[in-house]
């Protein structure tokens, strides 16, 4: 976290009676979101990174991937998530210290404490439902680790994420990631309209109700952070001199496949390569190719690549049916 010498006061923007929060201006910062596998931490982080990139910030992301394909829940070695570094200038690496981490349980947090370097002033936002868990061993573990980390000087903000999400959706466990996205948008002064548009894009193949519910969670997380947190940052965007395309490394690889003249591409979608095959499946028809599932698996597939001439591509109004 690299603060500049100036700080400004801003209202919390949520229509509450909380005092004004000082907004610290940073030149760059590192954020992590971690959870058990399958809880959507990576999706929240990718969305936060995309919004920041569209605002003009330099971005570097690294997925946090457990070694096991199906790691046990609440295990330090099974932490799954993402690390995002954003700055006012071009970012060329993942950074050396974590400034803020959002953890869905204390074991995932403990795994990152052990393996990542944290800034001495790092802030930790932690799901606290485990403090009242019916299993005594889980309650004891949570309280012990939180007390230990507080004793070590970490700034911990315990948040009832699942309970808060339950006020808005029937299955709060599936909504925590978008609630966290809303919190991060407030903390880092992100454009909420860009976040809403990102949610619409993520869930574009779902029903409008799914999109609406996730936007509700986004806005609720934003408002909760504005009402309850005592810190806020701004990472000014750089001025862009040309249009930019926001993509991750897997999407860049997929575009490389399309541009290379490759005649067949066989892929098995497994982390961290999944989005390469998904992106190809959505886009490959543009260059006159088709996707063929292998056996009964609609995602395990190969791409039969028959490239068209420039004239044919120019005349192509729509791609062939995707099977």
Would you write up a description of this structure?
- The structure is a single chain.
- The chain has 323 residues and is α/β, with parallel strands linked by helices.
- It has two domains: 3-234, Pyruvate-ferredoxin oxidoreductase, PFOR, domain III (Pyruvate-ferredoxin Oxidoreductase, domain 3); 249-315, no CATH class.
- 37% of the residues lie in helices and 24% in strands.
- The protein is built from ten helices and twelve strands.
- The protein has helices at 41-55, 106-115, 136-151, 161-165, 176-187, 192-202, 208-228, 249-260, 274-283, 310-315, and strands spanning 3-10, 21-26, 28-35, 58-64, 80-87, 98-103, 118-127, 155-159, 232-234, 264-267, 290-294, 297-304.
- The strands form three sheets. It has a six-stranded mixed beta sheet, sandwiched between helices. A three-stranded mixed beta sheet has the order 1-2-9, with no helix packed on it. The protein has a three-stranded antiparallel beta sheet with strand order 10-12-11, covered by helices on one side.
- Helix 2 links the parallel strand 6 and strand 7.
- The termini are far apart.
Key terms:
alpha/beta, Pyruvate-ferredoxin Oxidoreductase, domain 3, 6-stranded mixed beta sheet, 323 residues, disordered C terminus, 12 strands, 10 helices, 2 domains
What's this entry about, in short?
This protein has 323 residues and is an alpha/beta fold. The chain is built from 10 helices and 12 strands. β6, α2 and β7 (118-127) form a beta-alpha-beta unit.
């Amino acid at each position: 976290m690299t603060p500049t010498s100036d700080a400004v006061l801003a209202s919390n923007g949520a229509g509450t009676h909380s005092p004004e929060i000082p907004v610290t201006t940073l030149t760059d910062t590192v954020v992590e979101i971690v959870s058990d596998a399958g809880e959507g931490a990576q999706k929240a982080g990718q969305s936060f990174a995309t919004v920041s990139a569209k605002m003009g910030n330099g971005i570097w992301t690294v997925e946090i991937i457990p070694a096991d394909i199906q790691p046990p829940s609440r295990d330090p070695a099974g932490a799954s998530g993402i690390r995002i570094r954003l700055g006012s200038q071009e970012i060329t690496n993942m950074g050396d210290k974590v400034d803020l981490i959002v953890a869905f349980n204390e074991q995932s947090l403990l795994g990152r404490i052990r393996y990542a370097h944290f800034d001495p002033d790092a802030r930790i936002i932690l799901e606290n439902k485990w403090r009242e868990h019916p299993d005594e061993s889980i309650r004891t573990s949570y309280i012990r680790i939180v007390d230990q980390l507080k004793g070590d000087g970490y700034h911990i903000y315990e948040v009832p994420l699942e309970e808060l999400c339950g006020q808005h959706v029937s299955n709060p466990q599936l909504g925590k990631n978008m609630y966290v996205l809303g919190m991060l948008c407030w903390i880092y002064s992100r454009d909420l309209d860009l976040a809403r548009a990102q949610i619409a894009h993520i869930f574009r193949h779902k029903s409008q109700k799914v999109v609406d519910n996730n936007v509700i969670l986004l806005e609720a997380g934003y408002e909760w952070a504005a009402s309850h947190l005592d810190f806020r940052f701004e990472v000014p965007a750089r001025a862009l001199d040309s249009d930019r395309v926001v993509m991750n490394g897997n999407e860049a690889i997929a575009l490389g496949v399309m541009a290379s003249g490759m005649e067949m591409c066989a892929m098995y979608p497994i982390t961290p390569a999944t989005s390469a095959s998904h992106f190809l499946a959505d886009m490959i028809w543009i260059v006159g190719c088709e996707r063929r599932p292998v056996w009964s698996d609609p995602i395990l597939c190969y791409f039969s690549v028959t490239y068209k001439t420039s004239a044919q591509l120019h005349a192509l109004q729509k791609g062939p049916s995707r099977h």
